[in-house]
Input
Amino acid sequence: MTFKPLNENDTVNTRTLLHEAIPLTGSIISGSYVTNNAPDNIKYYSHGMFQTVYDYPYLSSSANHIFDITCGGSSQSGLTFGTNGQETKKNNIYGQMAQLLVGYDATGSVQLFDEDGNLFDAQPGAVDKMKEVFVIPFSRLLVKYEIKKETFQMSLDVSTHAGTQAFTDVITISDVSASTQYRVNSPAGEYGILYAADNNSLLDLVDHGNVDRKLTADGVDYLRCGLIFYQAGIAVVTGSIFGNLLTTPLGGAANEVYYDDGTTLGIDDVIADSSIDDCGTSFLHRVQNIQFNNTTELNSTVYFCRVNHNEFNYSSNPTYLENSRVRVKTQSTDEPVSYITTVGLYNDRNELLATAKLSEALKKTPSTEFTIRARLDY
Amino acid sequence: MSYFELKDNDVFVNTIEANPDYSFYIYSGSVLLNNHQHDDGNRDSTTLGVDPGHISLFEYNIDRPAGQRIYPFISKAGNKQSFKSLTKVQWNTQFNYDGEIITGSYNMSASISRETMSSPSSKLRALRSALNHYHFWSPSFDYDAHYQSDVTMINIPSIFYGSSLKKGQVSLKIYLEGALIAEATDANRRGELIHDGNVIGTVLYDEGMLLLTGSTVLTQYGTNQTRDLRWLDFGEHLFDTSSMDTDHLSASFGLDIQGVSQVQNMTILAKAPEGMLNHSNNPTYLKKSVNPLEQYHTSSYEYIEKRREVKNIVHSEQNLGEPPFNKETYISKICIYDKHRRLIGTCKLATPIRKSEAKEYLFKMKIDL
Output
């Protein structure tokens, strides 16, 4: 066995991005696992602050947590948020999420979610603040290090439909252009703007005096409708997605939202008067599909083990000798031969740290040279 | 923020040994894992997305039909990263170098496998070095003496046991019409599988292999055509029902193992000595001034900050007046730095701990390596 020192030209650190495609279809989220009209894959809590969605009945050990869903409303909103403590809960949810994701202003006040990420707008009179929001924190199991930019997409039904009815009026929410247009002014990391688009004239694309309300990219008109926080793995969707972003806003007796159990509520009532659990359920029944890609960083160090022609041609293995003679040589003029099977990596005190095994032994003679590339992933 | 150097006695590493327990029951060519019945999914044919009797690697795609499954992918690049399921030839020939996407699959599974051989195959020859390694325990590992004729090889993937099978915890059972007729164990913990005092095979603990050589007839079974039942027949028709005849379905087999899985665990002891860590650099540690302009004095020649008082946060049960001042802090977080003072880890307390000058604490932090 021979030691050969590695110098700085023999090692290189690399980083590979491993992605996963995460499809969350509506059938995974709701409708597949129902007992007595109650979903088995959605866990409700007595505190009623959020609900947890699993991909399988959550009492099974095989179930994976996929995301939580909740809704919140700012105390600066013009709406009142119900009775039985619901207003406090929605205010608290909004405040908690906003301080986590948007942070504080110079006076120490929690900032509001901003449609375009420009937090220097005057508050609270600015028109691009989202004061009633649905919040979807995705499981770290799915997000891993971060959501890959410009891969998030959600298909959402904005019709006044019963739970059993097929999705009819579907809009698509996505983080268009986010790979270059993402924002960095959040304490929770990078985030992108969510835009809504549709093919059925469901969205009200008139700017109503707010020229930044609309984005046109590749001939498609989009409306800003939320934020997606990539490292935190949290999507924030404005409550207006069922309201004034639509040509015909839902709400009122004529445009009621139907629940699976046959009860109805106007969409304003869903956000304002019903419980957080009902808000979440109402939203989940409208999700046709969510998909995104995640990212994991794989760090590697590559060691280039250079075997020159005049090196490693002999072996100190006892089997290399036979009757005190080198086994592979019969005459002194014969070339020595060895077979390289393993590369050992040692520290500066000659302590073995790692070994790299070759799938097949390499024949080494004085007329051959090799560079063996040993990669260590961590 | 104060720094304290960790001494040798403040850091130690423990090894925790776990012994995962698995049982396989083989009947009619199918396998029951840990006596669990196979679950049919609502939306897919299987809940776990793997064949019955198999363990799912990550249990990621639960009850997801094809097309709705989570899958990994990478862009092909010069650093030659790839998935293990892809051969070198496929990597070289099927993907371009312009960042083409290489996809993998998460529905990966593992289960026991069985192979019979009448003379040493290449797989058995590859185990010769391992058999020689175990030879000092028992002459039953002698390759030339015991493995030249009929051998049944049972392979247990390492996902079931960890680093090795636990000695003395391997048990094989043969049932006929539901009744136990023979059991072999490695009770002497040296790799010999013993039934009625006879060695009927060996266990390679580190490799997760069972090599069965027992050819003694245990009994005969079958109604139309009788057949010998031997230890060599253990697990016959495993995952292979094509060659199975209905006359010999009454035999079933049980395999119980325990594994050895070791996890290293580092414990760090951080001491908060008495008389120390009683001051904070946090701005909230000082009393808030009413007028921020009164906090400093400035002129053409000087800039002097005014002295500010430390806030009195001493806890008192009485509300008659402010308790006597005492320097107190609340410890909420411990940070661990390397020798270059680069932050490498933080440990947060569930509840901040009040630290007065008279008190000292020892914090015990653990991390799995």
In short: The first helix of chain A runs from residue 26 to 29.
